[in-house]
Amino acid sequence: MMTNRPEAQRVCAAPRAATVGARILTGISLFRGRGRRVFRTLGLVALVMVAVIVLVRLWPKPPLRDAIPSSVAVYDARGTLLRLTLARDEQYRLWVPLAEIPQELVDAVLLHEDQYFNYHPGVNPWALLRATARTYSGGARQGGSTLSMQLARLLYGLNTRTPWGKAKQIAWALSLEARYSKKEILEAYLNAVPYGGNIEGVAAASLIYFGKRPNALSLPEILMLAVIPQSPLSRTPSEAAQARLSEARMRLFERWASIHPQAREQAGLVSAPLNLRGKKRLPFEAPHFTTMLLSADARASTEIQTTLDLRLQKLLERHMRHYLSRTQQRGLNNASALLLDWTTMEVKAWLGSADFFNVSIQGQVNGALGKRSPGSTLKPFIYALAIDQGVLHPMTVLRDSPQSFGPFTPENFDGRFVGPIDAQQALNRSRNIPAVVVNAQLKQPSLYEFLKSAHVSKLASEAHYGLALTLGGGEVTMAELAALYAILPNQGRWQPLVTRKGNAGPPSTAPRLGGSGQEATGQKLLSEEAAFIALDMLEKNPRPDVAYAGRVMPLPVAWKTGTSWGFRDAWTAGVVGRYVLVVWLGNFDGSSNPELRGIDAAAPLFFKIADALMSNAIGVARRQPFNAIRLDVCQASGDLPNADCPRTVKTWYIPGVSPIKVSEVHRAVMIDTRSGRMACPPYDPRFVKREIFEFWPSDLRRLFAQAGVPRRLPPPADCGTGNAATAGMAPRIMSPLTGVTYQQRLSRSGNADGITLHAIADGDVETLYWFFGTTYLGASASGKDLLWKGAPSGRHVLRVVDDHGRVDSRTVTVEWVQ
Fold first, then answer.
1. Burial, 592: exposed, middle or buried (Cβ in 10 Å; 0-12, 13-18, 19+)?
2. Which helix (H) or strand (E) covers residue 356, if one does?
């Protein structure tokens, strides 16, 4: 049977087609399944990669700043650079946050160095290929490194001139991009980019080349800083490099102007040559002050904003230099000075020595922090404490006479005694004896306790000094003394010296220095009234220079001198307007010089500086305390004037505190015109007249006589002690002392020790009579002593009676020993 071949072929092809279709469907099904697995795998891989990137970015890591040591810049209160230190690696590199770098400078650097920085992952393949082609094809060498790659080279010290070094640079750049943000990388680059020599970073370059901070740069200066890093060795500012720099800067300016058309208005400025500086012109101002702050800061800050005013610093330096140039023949070669604004306690000038670089005077010693004897410069605080404690007021009469305080027998600087003197004159004439007497009367606080409260450091025990602390027996630093004098205009409040602006940085290692002005209230050590009165007393201290005698000064000057024992330190400290000024002359090795006297050596320099300050200084009105009043007192006695006081003066008085009584010195006496002696009642009007005489206590009367000061003393009376015209003052026993046990010893010869009897009597007294109980001991002339021998053991009442019948008594304890 014949078979139709085409039909047979169709019949056979059908199963094959079905098989192929099934296979295709099976393949599609398999492909779909495998595709889903592949996509899931790729998605998982991508997710893992993202997680790894996030983990790497978030993983704790040190900030890039830690890998880049920074210099420290010290500025004055007006932002003028005082000093720029080297970083630990001997580079000038000043770290500044990205936010403080002008955006124009950031944009110019990116435009010139890496305009695709924000878009690549740390490596720009096209730039690398282009640089490779030009480098190895014999053309001009061209860099292809991104900012990230350049930072990697700087951070890790890579040699990128070999293929292997370049590969390592790329790897480290990718690593930086994975771990840090673009802002962090850009910030680190701008702070580490080389600018020639050992200058790195835009901040250091800005200060060294232009003398200003980055945020003060002009557009021409910004463009200059942008082009230097591309080839810092060949473009380091110098005369030979000026042309290359100008050409590169103008090329960058054309690109900049195409993006910022308004910049074309500055084309003339950009094309003009720039006055570029160098490291040799870096300032080194106020070296003692900046060294102190840098030592205390220990590189905790990259910038230190101080309170110092460079203009005032230069003023003090100039006057000190000129003054010492004229005193060298007297052996005065070194000095220190400190100026602070007492209204803010900010240090405005600090001279640690006359010349920081002078080895012969040990110029690098910071004299403002050295412990020295202050001489008499502490006396104002003795008088202020005495005013506070009701011991005296400015016109209280004190005794400048030889006195002993146990084993301590002080003397005046001139070796003489002036007798009675009011407290204001005693302070301003720097009389030692009255100051010691006043100090001995202080209770709470004593001078020692006051100094401890004022943070005077390294004081020994109070017993170690005794009353010698009055005359400079302790030691203070110039900084501590300045803080003490600032108490007076600051209404009795002590505050620490402020050396830094704001509240940044650690406190200084110097005693109570480096504050930031936060302790505005301070520590109350004196009443407002006592501080005001003490300052007023110092303002009445006449200037030592004759040329200014009697002249009215633009600002009041309250000042005090001091000379240490052995002529080792000469001081003058005081308040000039809004400033406290302290000046010291001496030698850091402690050697003495008879020329080192406060009034002759330190005061002239003090007033030269004070006069210069007064020419520009603005006065600060001092408010008179409500409880300090002006009062008329008798000039002779310092007490309230009675009806017979011929002359009165003004004094400051604190109600309820200051000692005050009616004066008894001046009294009216009836004089017999025939004999010139005091008349006795009943008076014959034909032969008597009324006259005023001074009735001084016997001790003061003796002092006036010793000092050669004439007083109008009353004449003797014709009627003995019967002159009823004078009430007078009762005698006062001065010896023996109360609370003291007098030990009597029998000598080998059989003679016993005696007890000195002494009393102060009124001016009309001629004879004093002494009694032990009811036993008469003897008589002594007014102002003279009587020796009491053979006093029995036990407690006894001792009496003294003057020739007018006025009495004083005292209990005395006597003890006999072998």
1. middle
2. none
| Residue 793 banded pLDDT, cuts 50, 70, 90 | confident
DSSP class of residue 733?
E
| CA 490/CA 71 separation, integer angstroms | 38
Q: What confidence tier does 680 reach under pLDDT thresholds 50, 70, 90?
A: confident
| 192 backbone dihedrals φ, ψ, rounded to 5° | -120, -5
Neighbours of 301 (CB within 10 A): 18
Residues 6+ apart with CB under 8 A from 567: 592, 593, 594, 595, 596, 597
DSSP state of 120: S
SS3 assignment, position 526: coil
Tokens read off for 632: 């008329």
Residues composing the chain: 818
| Phi, psi (deg, nearest 5) at residue 350 | -145, 110
83: phi then psi, degrees, rounded to nearest 5:
-165, 140
User: CA-to-CA distance for 766 and 418, rounded, in angstroms?
Assistant: 24
Instruction: Please state, in angstroms and rounded to a whole number, the distance separating the CA atoms of residues 211 and 684.
Output: 96
pTM: 0.81
Q: How far apart are CA 350 and CA 369, in angstroms?
A: 11
Report the run of H or E that residue 628 belongs to, with start and end.
none
Taking the mean position of all CA atoms in its chain, how far away is CA 216?
Answer: 30
> CA-CA distance, 335 to 319, in Å (whole number)?
11
How far apart, in whole angstroms, are the C-alpha atoms of residue 173 and residue 799?
103
| Strand, helix or coil for residue 411 | coil
CA distance 389 to 445: 9
| Phi, psi (degrees; rounded to nearest 5) at 587 | -125, 135
Q: What share of the chain is helix, strand, coil (3-state, %, to 5)?
A: 40, 20, 40
Identify whether the C-beta of residue 628 lies closer than 8 Å to the C-beta of residue 529. Answer: yes
Across the range 181-208, mean pLDDT stands at 94
Cα separation, 151 vs 497, in Å, equals 43
Which pLDDT belongs to residue 301?
A: 81
